[in-house]
Design goal:
It is a single chain. Helix 5 crosses helix 7 and helix 18 runs parallel beside helix 21 (about 475-485). A 4-stranded mixed beta sheet has the order 1-2-3-4, with helices on one face. The protein contains 23 helices and 6 strands. By secondary structure, the protein is mainly alpha-helical. Belongs to the peptidase M1 family.
Length: about 525
Amino acid sequence: MPMPASTFTIAVGSWTEMKPELCSSKDLAAERSLSPSETDSRYVGICGHVEYPCRFQNLSATTQEIIPHRVFAPLCLQDACQETLLHLIPPCLSAAHSVLGTHPFSRLDILIVPANFPSLGMASPHIIFLSQSVLTGTSHLCGTRLCHEIAHAWFGLAIGARDWTEEWLSEGFATHLEDVFWAAAQQLAPHEAQEQQELKACLRWLRLQDEVRNSPQEMQVLRPNKEKTGHVSDSGSSVIKHGLNPEKVFMQVHYLKGYFLLRFLAQRLGDETYFAFLRKFVHTFHGQLILSQDFLQLLLENIPEEKRLGLSVENIFRDWLESSGIPQPLQRERQAGAECGLARQVSAEVEKWIRVNRRPRKRKRREAEEVFEKLLPDQLILLLEHLLEQKTLTARTLHSLEKTYHLPQQDAEVRHRWCELIVKHKYTKAYKDVERFLQEDQVGRWVHKQHGPRTCGHDLSLPSSLRLCALQAMGVYLYGELMLGEDARQQQVARRCFELTKEQMDRSSAEVVAEMLL
């Protein structure tokens, strides 16, 4: 059944349209002339969906790099939108067009939602919901989130999963394309793009390992129904495996394993071959619901025999989609592969901080001061992840860390790791940063953590149901860390912040936190 290509929306509250300071018609609907061969490759062919006004058969639409777009946000966020978001939309839309071709929808509205908005993942043509938290720090977090949501126009909206258990067909593709779009939007040189994407893969590898260690095996499978995937009974009903399991909502396995599968395929085939195929796939299947085998069969049919390298639908199912745990090809790749340059730079910085931390407060002889390198946001996250594994960090080290990288001014993902360090080491001078995070960045579906809190160096874990519910938000996760440390001052911080924010929190998050505070 075709999905609606337009929506009627009522905005409850006070919303203002944010407009670029310098706005021209070119900013709203830029077009370029394609060569005849490019036009033909995107325009020729009969669509496979039921009849509706389709942009893939409209020549002017196929050449439109940047579709008309608007941004709506509370007036108090106008400056932040101007500084961070508005200038990113045209290059991100143009990058997506350069990779996949025709934008499936004719316009785009972006709504900045408040911290108590419970979910950002609602499937709505023409509308993207972004957390106000992406407007802090540098443009990196905002740009990557924007690229992820733009990718859903193709994978998730124009093309959907026929079996709802195959979420990877939406989230895996959006996660993989997020990196490609963002590199193109930044106009990075090929080697720079590769380095940044390798660094992102390193972070996601850490997250996937956490996910596998801390989730039930049966929920780590991307195609749990196997040969019955997409099956519909005579009555027209179908079964969604784990559809009523509350833990399913908080898992990221379909993002991460789906991303690593697509990355594996792109590496095996070569980017040029893979993305040329992906454009063809989008043209063939837009407006339709698909299964995993639709994608994989067409992929293998459209690449030369010498590039298949033993790949088959059956072994991809076996190794990637129908097994729990870490896929064997991925395990071999990570064990054999060397760190990328950006990750090696982080490792060198970690060693410097470990040396700083070991130095006595009063040194007997003058030693050379460590010189720290400037790090990218993803490098900062990796640095803090490594430092979180250290048993103890002194207050002096934490103070120096904060000042060196201006951590309170970084984006929400960096600040979350910083808050974890503060809580773990009871760094009381920075409790204000934890309070700020709990009050301003509690929006749902943010968390990238899947292990028990790392409080005070002890291996403390929330009960399974509570831990997974706590993962609904990075802010909620911090409440768990504050309470499990059994430190009176930290628990006071948690209770004070909850009293100030509980009326603005979504109901499910508030119930989880209230249970923690008992």
